[in-house]
Amino acid sequence: MIETPIENVLDAAYEWERNHPDRMYMTQPIGNGEVVEYNWAQTMQQARRMAAHLRSLNLPANSHIALISKNCAHFIICDLAIWMAGHATVALYPTLNAETVAYILEHSDSRLVFIGKLDDWDKMAAGIPEDLPCIALPLAPETDYRRWDDIIAQCKPISDSPSPPPGQLALICYTSGSTGRPKGVMHSFGSISVPGQHFGRELEINSADRVLSYLPLAHVMERAVVECSSFYSGIHIYFADRLDTFVEDLRRASPTVFLSVPRLWLKFQMGVFGKFPEKKLERLLKVPIVGGLVRKKILRGLGLENVRVAGSGSAPIPADLIEWYDKLGLHIIEGYGMSEDFSYSHMSTHTKRKPGYVGVAWSDVQTRISPEGEIQIKSPGNMLGYYKEPEMTAACYTDDGYFKTGDRGKYSPEGLLRITGRVKELFKTSKGKYVAPVPIENLLNSDSHIELSCVSGPGRPACFALVQLAEEMRGRLDEPEFRAELTPKLEALLEAVNQQLEDYEEVQFLAVVREDWQIANDFLTPTLKIKRDVIEQAYAMHLDRWYESGDKVIWQ
Predict the structure, then answer these.
(1) CB 375 within 8 A of CB 409
(2) Running DSSP on this structure, what letter comes out for residue 385?
(3) Chain centroid to CA 102: how far?
(4) Residue 126, number of CB atoms within 10 A of its CB
(5) Rounded Cα gap, residues 165 and 193, in angstroms
(6) 3-state secondary structure at position 43
(7) Coil, strand or helix: which one is 355?
(8) Domains (ranges, CATH) in the chain?
(9) In contact, 431 and 441? CB cutoff 8 Å
(10) What is the rounded distance in angstroms from the CA atom of residue 300 to the CA atom of residue 332?
(11) Parallel, antiparallel, or unpaired: how do β-strands 374-378 and 403-411 relate?
């Protein structure tokens, strides 16, 4: 690991290239169980050749160059090339539709697009303007675009090692769009470099560690904690090939560092319960010796037996879920950050963690809770602003320079932060009291029968909750026996949750929905957060009937 302070991610990459050129950096699956590996010399050689090509295009300095790709080795090599050429990257989620692709490319003033590894190219291809130059990365779908390998074969690598100043624009990250049009969050080399170096240092990650990169690199969490951090730690990055090879990819990587989001941590738990009934497992874990063998078997089955740093982010993770993994000996570190601070705000550590809390503020982050309960921060990771939105940028900062996160929170006496919801997600029932839906959703989501929930009820006499059952149960919604068996369990869950709430927060009924909430149907963001407004609108037509029924559990 690079210990001395380095201001710039590119300088860190040059140091690995110079001092450890043969050290393996990335492992890329290419199908049929085969992989291609890239050491630091190969990585930087390709980046330098593409940087030479980009320079030859004579684009204006610090032009915006788009990148649309799933996670792969050439996503990172492409970033390096764009930065070396003096430009800024605009990464788009690989799950976007053509309309959103077209909007972002136009709004961002992108001069060129790199097309990478994609599953749904046919759905987004129409969003690429015909007059916009495109380059196809290795593993890209079949197109008529010039190919990366052909271009770098014709270009001599640049010989200099440019180091942009900390204030120069490095990338624009378009938010996942849980509400309205995605916003372009501008980050400088300074705001991506400080978090990149500190993540690895705090977690003591080095070049002997391994990580599987599968959460979208277009999102700041993976960009900061995996990509930018790797430039300092030298961690060996493995990539996932496809969803149906995920287990194989995970076992290949045998990660020592594993990052996920709450929904996937829950899916892993559900998979375990499919093999070990929950109550039986709980009994086995309490038995000396036997419990240790069971823990090892479960972690080995998940491909996580070598993990020493397990992290969760992007959304709140239920406290019960963290406690369950604690029993397995896998201690999940939760972090809190936003696109606007490059995920650099708060993080748990092995000595400062508590289920239900997202950790303490980094030592160089200033934070406070406003009188209205909003979390406000000053972070080295704070953005330059929203692209083309100076008024919106000004509105999200206080007069003394704190970023207004829009999240509500409270600190424990030990300085641990608890997220209590979003300021704008608060709603009033007809009783006139404000309700924060997220804490209630966390209580519901901690039950093994439920994968996701959405609590709402503005203007209604009481709250209600829309719930999506765990994946293995959703195919049985039309079975009368299944409904009869599950209804009393959900009624008991509703009662147990309501006992933990204030009277005005109590949930009147649970509505079990039929639709799979997915990214593809716009119910979830690319980072698997619920799109609250989309979900609420989808079921609004049923609400009067559901309230009038008087049922505690309603099957759509």
Answers:
(1) yes
(2) E
(3) 23
(4) 11
(5) 11
(6) helix
(7) coil
(8) 9-208 (3.40.50.980), 257-305+307-422 (3.40.50.12780), 427-555 (3.30.300.30)
(9) no
(10) 17
(11) antiparallel
| Cβ atoms of 78 and 134 closer than 8 Å | no
Percent with pLDDT over 90 in the chain: 65
- Contact (CB, 8 A) for 367 and 398: no
Q: What are phi and psi of 10, to 5 degrees?
A: -65, -40
Which residue, among 247, 268, 243, has the nearest Cα to 448 in the 3D structure?
A: 268
Cα–Cα nearest to 90, from 63, 65, 114, 120? 65
Q: What's the Rg (C-alpha) of the chain?
A: 24
Give me the phi and psi of 112, to 5 degrees please.
Answer: -160, 155
Adjacent-strand bridge partners of 452: 468
Burial label for 121, CB within 10 Å (0-12, 13-18, 19+), is middle
Query: What 3-state class would DSSP assign to 196?
Result: helix
Residue with tokens 């391994």: 210
Q: According to the model, what pLDDT value does residue 177 have?
A: 53
Both tokens of 323, joined, read 């406690």
CA dihedral 134, 138, 141, 143 (to 10 degrees): 40
DSSP-derived letter for residue 363 is T
| DSSP 3-state of 490 | helix
Specify whether the CB–CB gap between 350 and 306 falls below 8 A.
Answer: no
- Positions of the chain with pLDDT under 50: 178
The C-alpha angle 347, 519, 453, rounded to 5 degrees, equals 65
The Cα-based distances of 452 to 186, 318, 469 in angstroms read 31, 11, 7
> How far, CA to CA in Å, does 417 sit from each of 225, 290, 355, 528?
20, 36, 11, 22
Contact 257, 238 (CB under 8 A): no
Q: CA of 514: how far to CAs of 467, 479, 481, in Å?
A: 9, 13, 17
Structure token digits, residue 19: 């001092």
Q: Tell me how many degrees the CA angle 239-240-243 measures, rounded to the nearest 5.
A: 165
What does DSSP assign to residue 424?
T
SS (H, E, C) 63-75: CEEEEECCCCHHH
The pair of three-digit structure tokens given for residue 322, joined into one six-digit string? 């963290």
Q: Say what the pLDDT of residue 108 is.
A: 97
